[in-house]
Amino acid sequence: MLVNRIEEKIDNLKREGKKAFxxxxxxxxxxxxxxxxxxxxxxxxxxxxxxxxxxxSDPVADGNVIQDASFRAINNGATxxxxxxxxxxxxxxxxxxxxxxxxxxxxxxxxxxxxxVKRCIECGVDGLIIPxxxxxxxxxxxxxxxxxxxxxxxxxxxxxxxKSRIERIVKGARGFIYAVSQMGVTGNENSFHNEIxxxxxxxxxxxxxxxxxxxxxxxxxxxxxxxxxxDGAIVGSHFIRLMEDSDFxxxxxxxxxxxxxxxx
Length: 264
Prior knowledge:
Elements: H1 5-15, E1 20-26, H2 32-45, E2 49-53, H3 64-75, H4 80-92, E3 99-102, H5 105-111, H6 113-123, E4 127-129, H7 139-146, E5 153-154, E6 156-158, H8 166-170, E7 177-180, H9 196-206, E8 211-214, E9 232-235, H10 237-245, H11 250-263
Parallel strand pairs: 1-2, 1-9, 2-3, 3-4, 4-5, 6-7, 7-8, 8-9
Helix pairs in contact: 2-4, 2-11, 4-6
């Protein structure tokens, strides 16, 4: 089995007693050169992993910020195939930051499952997060992923209402568990589920896989009260707003990542 960048990075962090910091950026926003610069700058600033959102017209898990970002990226010509081309370019430039595609299953299905998996391998995609593909319906995609050496790993999402399904979801999981901190969609900062501590403790009892918390996080202080229950944090909407408000200034990008890492 080839070494997966996500697992290698997270394993190294655990051995060092450190937490992982992951951000999200919409592919092609405002253009692909800028997306590449954000990825490069983030790696140099010490980011541990990045989610690249594939723009989609009908998202179900994304709040207003990411929906608007997808809309603008699509209008600027962003596509799945163009994102693959960008991925190939960054890997050819020796950018080794672990990259996860966060996308919707219709995009994969329309592209062709086998073709999609092979393209991910060719372009160095490390992981997949698919919010609208329930665990019980992952069989076809999982079979295809398992059938190819070097295929991306499928990251499992677990929400506060998944208690009865946690053991099934985390069994055989790879990389990390994406723990959703709140009900609803992304972008509602500091709106954590009122049972978040109990939920995370129960989740940690069920698996040895690292647990990353996402949805509603803006800075390291937001998760200080549950820091001991998580292995890392994921920032999406806040990071996009930060980039947009700074007119995609790379110094702002680097400073934010360094500050979060220092405080986390």
